Amino acid sequence: MPRITTPEAEALLDQELTVLDHGFVRLVDYMGGDSSIVQAARVSYGPGTKTVREDRNLINYLMRHRHTTPFEMVELKFHVKLPIFVARQWIRHRTANVNEQSLRYSVMPDEFYVPAPESINFQSRSNRQGRSPEAVPEDVRARVLEILKGATEASYPQYQELLEAGIARELARISLPVSAYTEWYWKIDLYNLFHFLSLRCDPHAQYEIRQYAEAVGRCTQAVAPFAYAAFVEYQLEAASLSKHERLIVAKLIHGTPAAWSDFAYFGEPVEFGEDGVSKILQSRRRELADKIGVSIPVESEALAT
Ligand SMILES: Cc1cc2nc3c(=O)[nH]c(=O)nc-3n(C[C@H](O)[C@H](O)[C@H](O)COP(=O)(O)OP(=O)(O)OC[C@H]3O[C@@H](n4cnc5c(N)ncnc54)[C@H](O)[C@@H]3O)c2cc1C
To answer: Which of the listed residues 34, 266, 268, 302 has the most CB atoms within 10 Å of its CB?
Structure first.
């Protein structure tokens, strides 16, 4: 049987998709595509599955019903150049094969990530790990860039000085900041790649790793377009509701207004402020609205207790 390819993936092979200021994602190779998922699934269902005629329908069915192993039949291999602080988040995904550039062996080039001015934000007040959408004044941004560039401009000559003094590369490298770029080969199957994308394309993921995840997603879509579309529909842009959230949504669909008490999921004591609003229940309500993708009008903040 001929190798499974798509024209879109073939066109992307070996192209460096630029990410951030010096980084890239490059699709090095891939094995399989939508039809390998279908092939594997038909083995497990046997000839009786002729009712599931269309490949796309079968892939959607597998994704909806979390029949995951057929997606593992597809593999993608990437060459990625990324800042060390992004690599630290990325490497937490343990279900891939990785081979990283060794700075015990080679010399680090003079390339460091410096955020674009529009990516400089204040700390978010609502999300302890995130950035605020509030605009940062021009002079503050300029100072941030001065500090970040200053740190890299100071560290690289010192790194070179250590190398020139004959100090071991494995020691000299510890003078460099985590904005320095590293490179690796990263190979993963489609099932685990979707898991990576669902976590790292999410708006809660850090902006910088999201840029990489989007480039990886572009390659993935080229390799297995039906599977990628099913992933977007049933995972990436889907929402998983808790038992109580589901009951609240059912109530609203039936036209019964929700009350604060609906959000007290586990029966723990909940305090209401003088304005009749409970901070914890308000935050749960926002979380549910966020999952469903609706915003709560300010005038409806207060609910019946
Ligand atoms: C927004 C965000 C914030 C985060 N914040 C932090 C943080 O503050 N601190 C921090 O340390 N990490 C943080 N992480 C990393 C996070 O906890 C996970 O380590 C990372 O997302 C990888 O997820 P994973 O383990 O599901 O993926 P993978 O390692 O790819 O694993 C995939 C799945 O395989 C299974 N699996 C793999 N290896 C094992 C194993 N050894 N034992 C059991 N099951 C296994 C699990 O089911 C797992 O879900 C954050 C991640 C995100 C997306």
So the answer is: 34
